[in-house]
Amino acid sequence: MRWLSLAFIFLYIISFAIGPGPIPFVIVPELWAQGPRPSAMSISVQVNWWCNFVVGLTFQFIQSGIGAYTFLVYMAFLILSTIFIFFFVPETKNRTFEDISSSFGKKHEVNQNEYELQGSNKRDQL
Predict the structure, then answer these.
(1) How many distinct structural domains can be found in the chain?
(2) What would the pLDDT profile of 76-109 be if each residue is shown by its tens digit?
(3) 22 occurs within a structural domain
């Protein structure tokens, strides 16, 4: 039974490594330039580790509370994460780094001409 248990642990590690495990290490280099990349990588790895810690910490308590429906709690977080990724993480396929980084600023981009016009209107009112 020891060897079977060890084999399943290795199978889990291999499955996680070819599945969702490396996502923080793959998405960060695609979205960030060389300058802020180390900081972004640090933050993404910290979030990954903290999420793993929270799952490990809460699983036993949730399982003792709701039994077989424990995974529904984590599935709800997975659905929320999927919705967030769908709406806020840009597609990087066949796009240059400049295209990707410029897509982050489009939502909050301030048109300089409009800003200067508003400033001159306020000065005229004074």
Answers:
(1) 1
(2) 988 888 888 788 777 777 777 677 767 666 655 5
(3) yes
Q: Whole domain around residue 33: which residue ranges?
A: 2-89
Nearest to 1 by CA among 125, 115, 95, 9: 9
The CA distances from residue 118 to 40, 122, 123, in Å, are 35, 6, 9
pLDDT of residue 61: 92
pLDDT at residue 58 greater than cutoff 70: yes
Tokens of 62: 């949730």
**Is residue 99, in this structure, part of any structural domain at all?**
no
d(CA 25, CA 121): 48
Considering the entire predicted model, what is its pTM? 0.56
* Cα 92 to Cα 84: distance, rounded to the nearest angstrom: 16
| Cα radius of gyration rounded to whole Å, the chain | 22
Residue 98 counted as domain residue? no
In a domain, 116, yes or no: no
